[in-house]
Amino acid sequence: MERIPILKMGKLLLVTIQVDMHDRLAMTLQDDLTTRIVKDRAKGVLIDISALDLVDSFIGRMINNIAAMAKILDADTVLVGMQPAVAITLVELGLTLEGVKTALNVDRGMKMLGLGGMS
């Protein structure tokens, strides 16, 4: 089964989505990530979507769900690298991504999580 790697960097979990997301992969990521937040006692989740050209309503809701679950598990979520077309699509679909912080890049996202960064 295809999985998206989750890297641990101190108290941070880093997820870089470099493949086209489909519904099953998004559900697997949600499950894997919530398990890892608990196991690793993560305080932050950084999701890099810079390689995604498209996001549908299901994937948008999954990102929302991941952030909500992370919050319940005492971890903040920052979404980084959103392409303009993805942002436009999310707005057109009416998805506001409540509770999801966004940053232009990984460095800024790490700063938002209080974990350094360089720019």
Automatic annotation (TrEMBL):
Residues 2-113 form the STAS domain. CDD domains: STAS_RsbR_RsbS_like. It holds the Pfam family STAS. InterPro entries: Bact_StressResp_Reg, STAS_dom, STAS_dom_sf. This is RsbT antagonist protein RsbS. The lineage of its organism: Bacteria, Pseudomonadati, Pseudomonadota, Betaproteobacteria, Burkholderiales.
